[in-house]
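Recap for those who missed Tuesday's class. We walked through two folding examples back to back. For each one, the amino acid string is listed first and its predicted structure tokens come directly after. Nothing is annotated here on purpose, so try labeling regions yourself before you check the end of the notes.
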Amino acid sequence: MSEPALLDGSSQGREMALPSPKPATRRRRKLHVGHFAFMRAFVQRVDLRASWERYLRIEGESTDLRLVRSTVSWICDEFAAAATPENRLGTARLVRLDVSRIADPAPELPSLQEFAASRGLEDDSEREQIAAFEEAYGSAT
């Protein structure tokens, strides 16, 4: 039985350790202007697909929601990572908030005049109208 040949062509009866393949190095993504513009549009609740097509088409298809979500998550992580070394922990926390879970602002309330007209209070004093308005919508309004 013959000895296995080594890479240099000799056969000395010993095994040669081959170098292990290097793990595939992942290309380091970098933020660009499109990422900032997309996030601004995302926070302002501009149509997600239109914003993606305008600013991040190079990242992939807007129909792949997994890609869109992972990209938004990655951008937020990058923003937070940039804020943390600067001791801007409050900013880093804000960036990590899930803006999709933030409640919409208070519902659109009618003006005092519209409220008075809808309740038949046009002839009442403004003070009485305000009291009725606060009773209906709360005093914080």
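Example two. Treat it independently of the first, because the proteins are unrelated.
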Amino acid sequence: VNEVKGRMMVVPEGIVSGLGAMGWGTSPHIRCASLLIVPKMLGKEGRLFVLGYALAAIYEGPVANLRYNLNEVIASLGCTVELQINNTRAAWRTSTAPLRAVFKDLLGSKDSLKAETLNISNSFEDLDAQVKSEAGFKLEDATDSEETVWDVETRQAPASRQPLSTQKMFELKTKLRCSCEGVP
């Protein structure tokens, strides 16, 4: 069976050996031609033929294998990078899924959240009114032995101190109300 590989036709070795033996046995021309090949191979043309044959064998063997392996490495690297991108995308989606669910739930319940916020604000209206109120004391009584003079309306301490928080304002106004009522 003959196989065509590339441009060269490959003939099994048995057929070549059989034809060579038959030619040697029957034809003096074949014997003469084959004997003259030996000195020709030792010359310049013979060395070029052997070098060309060796280069063709190297190109068909190791070089073709190297080229095939490089193509496989490139395909493998591309597949690995694509797999890594897909895995990273899946890991990101998995890791952010709970956070996205929380945000989706918050967005779904924004009306109830607004109602709860309004309810909390309404709950503190009385307290805020008490903090803002000046009922039960006089601004001129805002001097205290332990705290110096406070500017209650602007919620500012003297220049050396920081602005008063709502808690401090409530405490100060409660103390002022108690001192006006005669409670120590």
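Answers for example two:
Strands lie at 3-5, 8-10, 143-144, 148-149.
The two ends are 121 Å apart (CA to CA).
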